[in-house]
Design brief:
The complex is a heterodimer of chains A (122) and B (199). With 122 residues, chain A is mostly helical. Chain A contains 4 helices and no strands. Chain A folds into 2 domains: 84 residues, no CATH class; 35 residues. In chain A, α2 packs antiparallel against α3. Chain A is flat. Classes of the chains: A mainly alpha (122), B mainly alpha (199). Chains A and B meet through α2, α3 and α4 of A and α2, α4 and α7 of B.
């Protein structure tokens, strides 16, 4: 069993290394896995919309939506963008941009939404 | 034939790490695109709730319609990976079907966005009405422009497949186009949650 087949939680990966034998692995999941991921993404989207309309969910709506959204995000980058099967270098390059972007978002919100509420000059 | 395949593989330009330079470069581009969309999303969040005149988000955003368009974009991502699988298998029929699916679903998403923008303008929300309108139209407009670019890219791949010029040795071209398409999809996943659902 190839490394990629072990890495695939569904046990249906097909490939090994790229045709040229170079290090970027293009062995990806099978169509059945893709359909399964597509179904899960649809289900999570339906859960998000349902949570939005259920009044009882209001107190926990934001964390629930953030967790569901993060799950969809992870499924797409791991299976559809093949980061689960590809070289870790690609994950590193992408995560570098993503972490920088997250820091920038937090910094801008703190600067323009949080700090103006405190009178540091007073 | 075998020589042509070797030449096609050599065109992929592998780096000293053994990784395709096209893929390393494209993942770097995607990392930089994260910063672009983070700045647009941050701007939307910073100006959230600061409009002094309406229409306000809770009055105008259409959740059922956007839920359907979100589903359409997610399914286009599914079609994209199936198209890549078809190219890697050397199946021209599967390649054409699924690339065509990506084009149709991507165009449908753009249709939903065009309808939404037109509806908002008729309701009195333009890019100059208030800070919600400015940040909303710039954010979703940039995303829509990326989807439009992706659809044009998919059309060129579909034409290549129809002409029999998309062999398994060319699958890297489809894989990179797929990375772009899936990135556009994950950006929408974030926008749908932060802009539409968390009001």
């Amino acid at each position: 069993m190839s490394t990629e087949a072990v890495a695939d939680g569904f046990g249906q990966a097909q490939g090994g290394a790229s045709p040229s034998g170079h290090g970027d692995h293009s062995g990806h999941a099978s169509p059945r896995t893709y359909w399964t991921i597509g179904g899960i993404l649809t289900l999570i989207t339906a859960m998000e919309v349902a949570a939005f309309y259920i009044p009882a969910m209001a107190p926990v709506l934001v964390p629930v939506l953030l967790v569901l959204s993060a799950t969809k995000f992870m499924l797409v980058i791991m299976f559809f963008m093949h980061l689960k099967f590809d070289s870790k270098v690609f994950s590193g390059v992408f995560l570098t941009g993503l972490v920088l972007a997250s820091f920038m978002t937090v910094a801008l919100i703190v600067l323009f939404q949080v700090l103006p509420k405190y009178d540091f000059m007073g | 034939m075998a020589r042509a395949a070797v030449i096609a593989q050599d065109d992929h330009h592998y780096t000293s790490t053994g990784l395709s330079s096209w893929k390393v470069g494209f993942w770097t581009f995607i990392g930089s695109e994260c910063l672009l969309f983070a700045s647009l999303i941050s701007t939307y969040l910073v100006y959230k709730g600061r409009s002094v005149v309406g229409p306000y988000p809770e009055e105008i955003l259409n959740i059922p319609l956007t839920s359907v368009s979100t589903f359409v974009l997610l399914m286009s991502s599914l079609a994209m990976v199936l198209a890549l699988d078809g190219v890697q298998r050397g199946s021209r029929k599967l390649s054409l079907i699924w690339l065509g699916g990506v084009i149709l679903l991507g165009s449908a998403f753009l249709g939903f966005q065009a309808y939404e923008f037109t509806h908002f303008v008729h309701e009195g929300l333009t890019i100059g009405t208030n800070v919600f309108g400015s940040s909303f139209f710039v954010l979703t407009g940039f995303h829509g422009a990326h989807v439009t670019g992706g659809v044009i890219w998919m059309i060129t791949l579909w034409i290549m497949a129809a002409r029999g010029k998309l062999a398994p040795a060319d699958s890297l071209k489809v894989e990179i186009a797929g990375l772009y398409w899936h990135f556009v999809d994950i950006v929408w996943i974030v926008i749908f949650t932060l802009v539409y659902l968390i009001q």
